[in-house]
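In this section we walk through a basic example: taking a raw amino acid sequence and producing a predicted 3D structure, encoded as C-alpha cells. The instruction is simple. Fold the sequence below.
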Amino acid sequence: MGIWKIESNTPVRVSQTKLKDEKLLEQHLEDWVATDTDLLGEPLLIIGRQVIIPEVKDRLDLLALDPQGNAVIVELKRGKLSDPVDMQALRYASYISRWKYEDFENQAKAGINVAGDSEFNFNQEYEQFCSDAGVDEVPDLNGDQRIIIVGSEVRNRLGSVALWLREHNVDIKVIEMQLFRDGENVFVEPHTIIPLPVSRFINTGAPKKSPSNRPWLGDGKEWHLEKRCGPKSKEMLLELNSAILDNFEVDGPRWNQKFYVAYRVNNSNWLVVDTNASLLRLKFLVKAGTFKVETLAKQLGVEVYDTDESLSEKLAMPSSVRVNNLSEATDRVNLRIKEGFDITSTSFMTFLKQAYKVYPK
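The resulting C-alpha cell sequence is shown next.
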C-alpha cells in the first residue's frame, strides 16, 4: 500500500524511501525502538543496548524483558533481512537462556541506569513496568526467550525459517520497517510479517473453532505436560495427579484449560494447578480460618511467600506458601512448588487430606 496526505481535498502520495537512502544507520533504528517499543507492537523494558556476551564476545543489539518475564532479543538490520540474521539471533537467545536473575540485574544497572543513580532499584523498575502493562503478579524472569528481528525487507529464505521456528514453538517475530518522506518529515510504518497478520473478520460467519486451533481443547493433557511444563514440573504434576486420584473423589483432572488443570468437588474447583516450566502453583479453596500460613509453611517445609518482598527475593525463594482470604467463608491456599518439593511426603499428604476435608461445600 502506501501513505497519502490530503492537500486541497486531493490525495497526494507520500514518497517511499529507505534507511540507507536517508543515510540512517542501524543505530538510528535502535534509538527509535529504545525510545518507544510500541514500534515493535508491544510493551518491552529495554535493559541493554549493544549487549556484549562476555564468554563469546558476541554483541546483540537490544536486550529487553516483556511483562511475562521472558527475555527478548531484538536484532536490527538497516537493509534486507537475509539468512545469517536468524542464526545470529538464535545464538544470542541460547546465550541469554543461561542467565540468572543477577545477570539481568547487572545488565539493567548499566543499561537503564545510565546516569549512575546510586538509588536505582531494578526490582522496583521491573515491578512498575509489569504493573503499567496490567500484570498483577510479577513473573519469574527468563522463563523463556523470544526473538524479534527488524529490518527494511524480509527475504523469502528468512521468512521460511522464521515460520518453521514458530511451528516448532520458538517465539520469533519479524517486522519490516517502511519509511516515507514528505519534505523534511520522515515517517516510519512498522509491519509485523511473522507471525502472519490475522484478519479481524476471519471468524465472521465461520463455525465454532475446532480444537486444533486451541490444542488444550483437543489434547489438554499433552498440552500441559509437554508444552506448558518442563521436565521437573511435569514429573511433579504426574505425581500430584496420582496422589489425588488415589485418595480423593474428585471430578478431574480437567485438562481443557489453557493455563491450568482443575479438580472439582460438587461442581466447583477445589484445586487449580497453574502449570509452568519451572514450578507449579497449587490453589486450594478451603474454609476460612482453617490454615495459618506460618504453621502450614512449617508443616510443609516451605517458606512464607510475602508479596511485599523484592523481586529478587521472590525469584530466589524456593517452594513457598501464602493464604489469601476471599470471603467470610473461604480462604485460598496458594502453594508454589519447585524442584525438590516431595509430593509423596507424609506432611504433604496430610495437608491434602486436611484441605479436602475443609473444602467449603
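Looking at the output, two observations stand out. The longest strand covers residues 172-182. The chain has eleven helices and 18 strands. In the next section we compare this with other chains.
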